[in-house]
Each structure stands twice: as C-alpha cells, then as structure tokens.
Write a structure and sequence with these properties.
The complex is a heterodimer.
Chain A: E1 4-7, E2 10-14, E3 19-25, E4 31-37, E5 43-49, E6 55-58, E7 61-65, E8 71-76, E9 85-92, E10 100-101, E11 105-110
Parallel strand pairs in A: 2-11
Antiparallel strand pairs in A: 1-3, 3-8, 4-5, 4-9, 6-7, 7-8, 9-10, 9-11
Chain B: E1 4-7, E2 10-13, E3 19-25, E4 32-38, E5 44-51, E6 57-58, E7 67-73, E8 76-81, E9 90-97, E10 104-106, E11 110-114
Parallel strand pairs in B: 2-11
Antiparallel strand pairs in B: 1-3, 3-8, 4-5, 4-9, 5-6, 7-8, 9-10, 9-11
Classes of the chains: A mainly beta, B mainly beta.
C-alpha cells in the first residue's frame, strides 16, 4: 500500500521566516495533494501535483514534485500566524481511487 | 466549486447507542465516497470506500458490522456507528470524487463523542 512519510512532525517558526515541509512516498505517485487542516475542522485543499518536476505556487506557498514523482516539498515564504495548522500530504494510488495521507506536520508560527 | 457537506458537525451520545453521520455531495454526483477517521494529533485514516449501489469496501482492521455504510444515491452516503463506545470517539471526515475528475472534495467533518 502507498506509504507517505512527512517531515518534520512539528515545526515552530518565528513569523516572517521561511519553512519547508517534506513528503516522501515509498512508491511512484500518481498524484500528490497538499491540504491544510486545523484540528477538528475539514481539510483545505492547497495544491495538486501530477507531473514529475511540477511546481505550483499560491500566494506564499509553493509545492514541488520531484522528477521521480516520489518526493514533494511544500515551502512557505515569510510565514504568518495564519499559516499555522496541520499540513497533510495525500497521494492517490496509480488507479487514482482512494487517497492516503501522511502523518501530518503541525506548524506553529510565533508572532 | 464542488461542495461536500457533512451532518451533524458534532454529536454526543451515550455508550451503546448508534449514531448516523451523513455525507452529501451538494452540486455533483459522486459514485464513490470515502470515510476517514482522525484521532487527536493523528492523521486521517481511511476507513472504507463507499460505492453507490453496492457494498462498501472496508480497510483492514475496520469492523464492517460496527461501521455501517450505505450509499443509496449518487449524492448521499451515510456512516452509522453502531453500539458506540468511548473509544469510537473521533473526528470522522468524508470525501467524494466527482465522476471522471481526479480531485477529492472533503466534508467539514463530524466530531463524535461517546460518553
């Protein structure tokens, strides 16, 4: 089964600092998704990557998928308290059916 | 964009009772829906895949007699936690896939507390 490892498990940064979260798969990814969640609430879709080498940006968040389609990184530039939450990477298997998630990275941004 | 709605958003029940959670796709037909469970400080774990008009497919370790899933229409799937116990207290989230499109849309989640 698809296994996703996220690192770090938790991250505390000072407001204004940049940060990176990584997601590594044991298998080639059909699609890699990044979500943000505040615990006890639903998931907020951030980005989806499907092509090797693909990179997408939205506001201050950039996500990349490596050429082998087994590793993705999420980079936040000039972090703000509003970026705090749990970041989850999710992957759809080759048949693009269900989605499995990494363990999540808990981000705290100190003002 | 597509919206998936869950109801109730939170529920408190007594041990031994059954609780039903609904997942609706509001503006598209979903032939497949997924149910996830999330314990505190943990990630989402897939419980089962709900298929319209057929039996659900459960993940290993998930009791199908305890977590009853019904997907009677293309816009509604229900999860019933039967004979709930305190260890069933969790955050349950559903998702739905628009037919032929890769993206999954998630509901807002339902928090179940069993006393």
């Amino acid at each position: 089964s698809q296994e996703l490892e996220q690192s770090p498990q938790s991250l505390i940064v000072q407001e204004g600092k940049n940060l990176t979260i990584n997601c590594t798969s044991s298998k080639t990814l059909y699609g890699l998704y990044w979500y943000k969640q505040k615990y006890g609430e639903g998931l907020i879709f951030l980005m989806m990557l499907q092509k090797g080498g693909e990179e997408k940006s939205h506001e201050k968040i950039t996500a990349k998928l490596d050429e082998k389609k087994q590793q993705s990184s999420l980079h936040i530039t000039a972090s703000q308290p509003s970026h705090a939450g749990i970041y989850l990477c999710g992957a759809a298997p080759i048949n693009n059916n269900d989605m499995r998630f990494g363990a999540g990275t808990r981000l705290t941004v100190k003002p | 964009g597509a919206v998936v709605s869950q109801h109730p958003s939170w529920v408190i029940c007594k041990s031994g009772t059954s609780v039903k959670i609904e997942c609706r796709s509001l503006d598209f037909q979903a032939t497949t829906m997924f149910w996830y469970r999330q314990f505190p400080k943990q990630s989402l774990m897939l419980m089962a895949t709900s298929n319209e008009g057929s039996k659900a497919t459960y993940e290993q370790g998930v009791e199908k007699d305890k977590f009853l899933i019904n997907h009677a229409s293309l816009t509604l799937s229900t999860l019933t936690v039967t004979s709930a116990h305190p260890e069933d207290s969790s955050f349950y989230i559903c998702s739905a896939r628009f037919q032929g499109v890769g993206e999954l849309f998630f509901g807002e989640g339902s928090r179940l507390t069993v006393l």
